């Protein structure tokens, strides 16, 4: 945390770790006036929003579906298959994506077989967001069901019995018993996901993007990497990083306040 002070001081490699002298808000004014920053800021919001939109509700849906499976072997098999991508290194996941979407990859082979022309997916900016979100869903949805499945086991079976006596079908039982039962878990995970909204997957984007896809793929974390390490402008990068952290803090506090006042569940 003390290192954040270089966002307000001129830092030079080899000098003091807390910077040479004060420059105030100079670096903040620099990136706020930089069109490139606002482009990567927009990309961060879009990718973060798409990731939250798909990766938050899908584990809930999968957990509800698994909860309805009565064949134990089938349920364990589906769980194992859905958990597996989580344990793969991001480098491996990126390599798989690149192999599938290359010009000679499996996807383009299907495109050619259907009579279409090859598509350079990894060089087309308009395809990057779809590729990233799809790979993120594949890698995280299965693992995300664990907490929800654990929460489902805490729901009293008498509630389902009472609902059936009242004539509720499976859909009504899910809506009026299951979802309220796992609501505290849902709200807690939503707040945590909102807190990481700005920290879109740095490693995967760094491995998948290239200069051709910068218009839609470049986010704050990758921009910081290039500015801080490639250009050795550490103070400028620290200022942007601090700005991103403050936004994340505001999002968490706001989400927690809204959750506490609307559904009565919050982190604190």
Report on the structure:
With 268 residues, the protein is an all-alpha fold. The protein has a single domain (2-262), classed as MetI-like fold (Orthogonal Bundle), CATH 1.10.3720.10. Helices cover 69% and strands 1% of the residues. The protein has 13 helices and 2 strands. The protein has helices at 26-32, 35-55, 57-68, 72-83, 90-101, 106-113, 125-152, 157-165, 170-195, 202-208, 214-217, 220-230, 234-262; strands at 9-10, 21-22. It has a two-stranded antiparallel ribbon. α5 runs parallel beside α10 (202-208). The longest helix has 29 residues, at 234-262.
Concise structural overview:
The protein is mostly helical. It contains 13 helices and 2 strands.
CATH superfamily name? MetI-like
The 3D shape can be described as flat
CATH architecture label name: Orthogonal Bundle
Q: Work out the helicity level.
A: 55-70%
Give the CATH class: Mainly Alpha
Q: What number of structural domains do the residues give?
A: 1
Structural class: mainly alpha
Question: How is the CATH topology named?
Answer: MetI-like fold
What is the end-to-end distance? 23 Å
Radius of gyration (CA) equals: 23 Å
Q: Any descriptors?
A:
mainly alpha; 268 residues; MetI-like fold; single chain
């Amino acid at each position: 945390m003390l290192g954040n002070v270089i966002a307000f001081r001129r830092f030079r490699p080899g000098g003091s770790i807390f910077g040479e002298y004060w420059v105030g808000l100079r670096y903040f004014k620099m990136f706020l006036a930089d069109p490139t920053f606002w482009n990567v800021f927009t990309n961060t919001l879009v990718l973060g929003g798409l990731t939250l939109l798909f990766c938050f509700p899908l584990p809930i849906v999968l957990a509800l579906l698994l909860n309805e499976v009565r064949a134990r072997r089938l349920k364990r098999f589906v769980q194992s298959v859905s958990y597996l991508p989580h344990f793969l290194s991001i480098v491996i996941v990126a390599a798989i994506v690149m192999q599938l979407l290359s010009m000679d990859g499996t996807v383009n082979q299907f495109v050619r077989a259907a009579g279409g022309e090859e598509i350079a997916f990894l060089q087309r900016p308009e395809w990057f967001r779809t590729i990233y979100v799809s790979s993120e869903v594949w890698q995280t949805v299965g693992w995300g069901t664990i907490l929800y499945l654990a929460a489902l086991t805490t729901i009293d079976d008498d509630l389902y019995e009472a609902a059936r006596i009242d004539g509720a079908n499976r859909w009504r039982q899910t809506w009026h018993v299951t979802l309220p039962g796992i609501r505290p878990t849902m709200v807690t995970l939503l707040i945590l996901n909102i807190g990481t909204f700005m920290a879109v997957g740095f490693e995967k984007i760094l491995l998948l993007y290239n200069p051709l896809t910068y218009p839609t793929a470049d986010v704050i974390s990758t921009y910081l990497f290039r500015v801080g390490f490639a250009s050795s402008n550490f103070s400028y990068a620290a200022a942007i990083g601090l700005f991103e952290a403050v936004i994340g803090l505001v999002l968490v506090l706001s989400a927690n306040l809204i959750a506490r006042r609307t559904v009565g569940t919050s982190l604190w």
